[in-house]
Amino acid sequence: MKKFLLTALACALLILPFSSTALADDVEEASPAGQAQDYVPGSIPAQAEAAEVMSPALHGVVLAMSNHGADTFDPSDTALAWEAVYNMLSLYGQLDSRSQPDGDWLAFPAEVAQDYAAALGLDLSKMGPPPVGLSDRLTYDRANGCYQVVCGSNDLAQLQVRDTTAAPGRLQAEGALVYLVDGSDLMTFQAELRSQDTMFGWVLAGLTLTEA
What we know:
Elements: H1 2-15, H2 20-30, H3 50-53, H4 55-68, H5 78-92, E1 100-102, E2 105-109, H6 110-118, E3 138-141, E4 146-150, E5 157-167, E6 170-179, E7 184-195, E8 202-211
Antiparallel strand pairs: 1-2, 2-4, 3-4, 5-6, 6-7, 7-8
């Protein structure tokens, strides 16, 4: 049953459009009157926990791994790596002030995609083009030097970090992908983060995934 739910959630993320205008409205409503909020990943206050800052990376990787049936994150698996980057851009890129909405699509300068990829320890210039399997939702416009992604939505599941263990320059994080309909855990994960001078301030050093 859980495998069926994971497949359904992956399909929902990959094919359901999500209105960036509606998202912007939600952010404005949650803000004090008269104060506009433009969220740029990496601009979170320094006192925020690394696990919170890296939630987009953890979420993107966990979804990609569950879709590929992978137990560990292997950056050399380009199909898996590209899908993790796509998940990050699709779910969280709508909140990046550098994104340009175009209907159900978002456009990003190539540097934005690399900023997100760097949180996973990836260098897009060495990964080759996005795989054919993602061509209907992730494309690269070489003439304009920008990526385009279909906006995704994953309202049925939520990534939760439940425990962290800190060491100098490193952080161990444990959590789960939770099915919001009944609060059950779909997958649990253990991740290692390493401090690094990137936009997110950290890089994913390893992640293992198990079915709950």
